[in-house]
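User: Hey, quick favor. My workstation is busy. Could you predict this chain's structure for me?
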Amino acid sequence: MLVSIVIINYNNASDTIECLESLLNLSYIPFNIIIIDNNSLDDSCKKITQWADGNFSLSIAGDLKKISSPPAKKPLAYVMYHYSDGIFSKESENTDKNKSALTIIKSAKNLGFAGANNIGVKFALKHYSPAYFWFLNNDTVVEKNALSEMIDLSQKDKEIGCIGSKIIYYDKPELLQYAGGAEKILTHGTTDQKGQPSSNFSEDREIAGYITGTSFLIKKEIINRAGLWDENFFLSVEDVDYSERIKKSGYKLFFSAKSLVYHKDGSSSKRKITIKKFLWTKSERINIKSFYTIGYYDLRNWIYFNKKHRLKKLSAKLFYYFLFIPYLFLGTITYIIRYDDYKLLRIKCVIKAFIDGFLNRLGFREPLKEFQNIKYE
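Assistant: No problem, here it is.
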């Protein structure tokens, strides 16, 4: 059963290449790899093709080096396409015979996580007709059996529609980030698994909440039943939405405990997290550079998600709009005042997120002009 692996690259060829090296050591066959370059502003595509040609090597340090070793034999066969307005145009290729073929698709626009994944799905359906799709973050490396374990689990129950891996922190492999995803979906998302010993999660099990988009395996039939990724989200919460639609289509979500994926957590968005103090309290805070992408889209998209899936009854609407939203808004502002720099700009961004969420101003939105004048480190 053919699996199409879809990976999104944005200004981050080094992580993508390390991920690819680990994928090329997978024990499962057959699979193909589709890389969507989301209109990178650097020379990502050049580096990836140089690597595939055997003219660029990546220095990998640390205990996880063994996962991406030995390097795949080069050159690798690849074809590069340009994508714009629904049209795939072939640009170049290296057709040297090799077992591991890559497809690299350069998008003319940054379509976000959902839009780029949909490009990969459309291309795969047209050219490969795979039985499964594996959506995988580019800032990950995977164990050899990561894919085979998920496929084996899927074959045990035809009602399983989506499977997530055991997501482990790349720099702290003894600690868990996600056991597939989250058990509960509240009005603003939650997971109580982060930071726990990864060895505590050793059994496959059904997930009641959602599967994280870090590692997200679905059957082809899910596309027909639940549709494509919702591009209204652009970035953040789209995995929660897709998981919800998969469940509503009559399928189960499952966690595969032996499918191990090591995640660098946030390399694509270049988020930087620091611990800030206020009196005797502490809080993990993202820097101002990341705040528009992480802070704005996260707030706006949770409002959109809840309107889409949760607010069907009058009582739910009254609770959400008159109790939870004021609580969330005031709580967010309070934390900004306590811990963050650029307080006024962050508050303006939060207000924009709430307004856009209520008015369904979705998809990509231009950041506030003040963000363009900040000199980032």
